[in-house]
Structures are given as C-alpha cells and as structure tokens.
Write a structure and sequence with these properties.
heterodimer, A: 109 residues, B: 281 residues, mainly alpha, Cytochrome Bc1 Complex, Chain D, domain 2, globular
Chain lengths: 109, 281
C-alpha cells in the first residue's frame, strides 16, 4: 500500500539538549475498517495500519496501536526531548504486514 | 448590619453564578463564522449579496487542516498527479508533459476558467473531460473512468496550478444557453424532498441543516478532500450526493446537465480564489 512517501516534519532539526522537538507525520493508507460491505453484500476485509512506532537510534520514542476507528491517511503529532543526535526512524505496519518506513536525522548540541 | 452582610452574600452568589454561566457558554462548540469573509458580487443583480467560500462555513479545526499543506491529505493526490503528468501512456507513447511541458507554467489559470467552450465538440467541456480528450486524441490512451484515482488526481493537480487565482468562467456567446440551462437546473426542485439547489445554498446558507452547516455550495475548492469520504471528491460526485440526499435521481457525472450545472456554479463563485485541494467535512 506504500504508494506515497510518508510525510515527516520536525519543527527544528538542530536542537539544544533538553529542548522539545515537535514531530508531525502523515502517511497514506486506505484504513479499511473491516465493517463495510461491498455492493454484493460481502464484508470488505479489514486493512488498516495497526502499529506506529518511532525510534531514535533504535531506542523507542513514541508509538501506538491503531484500531478500526482511525480515519484514512493517519496523522500523528508528538513532542519529545531528544537526548542524542542520530536517526529518527518511523515505522507503520499494516494488516498485511507491509512496513512503511521513513527516516529523519536530528542533531543535538 | 447582618442584613447588609446577607445582601452582600447574595450579590456575590449572583456574580459567581453569572461567571459560571459565562464559562458554561464558552465551553460549547464553536459556531462557524462566515460573516465578513465574502467578496463583492460582480454585478448588481447577482443572486448572492456576497460570495463566500465554503472554507468559512467549516469549523476552525477543518480550516486548520487546509491551511497547512503538510496536514492536507489532498496533497497525496497532487503527488500522484505530478507523477502521472510525465508518465507516458497509450499508443502514441506520450505523456501530458510531451505537449504541455511544465505544468506549473502551462496549466496556470487553466483550472480557474473551466468549463470552457470546445469549438470542435460544440459544447463546453470541464477539466475531467479535457483530460480524457487529450488522452484519447493525442496520447491514444484509454480514457480514465470518472471517479478513478487517476482522473481525480490529475484534475486536482491541474487545478492546483491555479490555486489562489480567481474563478472566472466565460458565459457569453455559445456558452449562454448552457449557462441558462445550469441556472434552470439550479432553481428546479428535485426529488421526493422537492428541493432545488437554491433552497439550501441560496436562501438558507449560514444555517444548520441537521448537523451540517449550509454553505453557498461554491465550487472553488474542488476536487475537495472530504473528511467524510476520506479521499478527494470531484465536483460531479458531490452534486450526485446532494441530489441523492433530496431523494432525486442524480445527473450522471460528466453528462450535459452536470456540466451545465458546473458552469453555473463556477459563475456563482466568480472572483473566489481557487482552493484546490480544499478540505471539507
């Protein structure tokens, strides 16, 4: 389902230690709920992103489990205080096991 | 003395209650404020006293999604449109870019002036139809189906090049009978509920229709990303939705009726900036 590159935006890429970074992410996904029926009355199987995680140098920063009620193209915004410079890695995993990944570098001074 | 104290107590209580009442009022949902955001109509006998974009009839939360291009999921379609623009398709081995080069330059203002008269077909064509005409005649490719992700993405991408430019369609000459037809359709009652477009969008905009806040039904933001559908919705699909809701039989997308109505709608929004891809509920 990874048709489009996920969008990541940090309010600043260089921060002083102890400063807060605002992270926004938007990913393209149909997020089919599993409760809808097609015109023949058959249930359309659930197809959603069920997990979102972000890690800084492999260390967990933020994540959550998603359920059927989340709308298409899920958008997340979170704030955190990076302790070290490195690569911020974002992973979305959907019901078919497809992993959508994106990275962003961050410098802490 | 004690009487005076009691009086003071009552007064204080009254003030406290007043403050509480005020706080309660403020905690309610915010009503969209469209007043004062309109532009002046181009002529005196215009059907609306002021022309207001649908943007101002939405909540500030919905507006916020549109305000920031990063948040606006409609931009996924722009990315797709940009990709398709230079992707060859069909027997001629051409892409849109083969003839039109850089969309940012060649497509600027095109979307703001559609539907436009086609001398060859002797009728007005809208953006979707023109894209498929190009695909058929120049690229020798199969037309994209109405409502397909490709056609909607390309329509959005082309119209996006006119973002911020005022809507301005020609209604003179051969377009005049189509304009009149659109105007007639707009004011014709339809369906079991017996409602014309004008009943809601001309006479009652700015009021609630159940939980929905009625706009003027302007078309300047189309195709729009609808939070309800969670995807981009082309104008003719939206018109189908409206007519379905009054329990009428919708005009098929890209039919003569739908194009005439699109022309009339565009004229009603003369001067409004193109907002494609707008975000609506």
């Amino acid at each position: 389902m990874a048709e489009f590159k996920p969008r990541i935006r940090l309010d600043k890429k260089e921060v002083k230690k102890g400063e807060t970074v605002d992270v926004k992410t938007l990913v393209s996904h149909i997020m089919e709920t599993g409760f809808r029926h097609d015109p023949d009355g058959k249930l359309i199987p659930r197809m959603i992103i069920n997990t979102f995680t972000s890690e800084l140098n492999g260390k967990f920063v933020f994540g959550c489990d998603l359920e059927s009620a989340v709308s298409a193209n899920p958008y997340f915004e979170f704030k955190f205080k990076p302790e070290e410079s490195g690569t911020l890695k974002f992973t979305w995993i959907d019901d078919e096991g497809v992993r959508i990944e994106a990275t962003e570098t961050i410098t802490v001074t | 003395m004690s009487l005076r104290l009691a009086f003071c107590g009552i007064l204080l209580l009254a003030i406290a209650a007043g403050a509480a009442g005020l706080a309660f009022g403020e905690s309610g949902l915010e009503h969209p404020r469209w007043q004062g955001h309109g532009i002046a109509p181009p002529a005196k006998d215009f059907p609306l006293p002021e022309i207001v974009s649908g943007y101002w009839f939405r909540t500030k939360e919905t507006q916020a999604i549109q305000d920031d291009d990063f948040n606006n999921p409609g931009f996924f379609a722009i990315e797709q449109g940009e990709e398709l623009w230079s992707k060859p398709d069909g027997a001629a081995g051409k892409s849109c870019a083969s003839c039109h080069q850089d969309a940012a330059a060649t497509m600027k203002g095109v979307g703001a002036a559609m539907p436009k008269w086609s001398a060859k077909l002797e009728k007005p064509v809208n953006l979707e139809q023109q894209i498929n005409i190009c695909r058929g005649e120049r690229m020798q490719a199969a037309p994209w189906e109405f409502g397909s992700a490709e056609l909607t993405a390309m329509t959005t991408y082309v119209r996006f090049q006119s973002r911020g430019m005022p809507v301005n369609v020609r209604i003179d000459g051969p377009m005049a009978p189509w304009f009149d037809r659109g105007k007639e359709l707009y004011h014709t009652r339809n369906g079991q509920l017996d409602l014309a477009c004008a009943n809601c969008h001309e006479r009652n905009y700015g009021k609630y229709l159940r939980a929905d806040f009625l706009s003027q039904g302007q078309s300047n933001g189309f195709p729009v990303y609808r939070l309800r559908e969670q995807r981009l919705v082309p104008l003719h699909e939206r018109m189908e939705g409206c007519i379905f809701d009054v329990r009428g039989i919708p005009y098929p997308p890209l039919s003569d009726e739908a194009v005439a109505l699109e022309l009339y709608l565009a004229w009603r929004g003369t001067g409004l900036p193109v907002e494609t891809p707008a975000v609506r509920n």
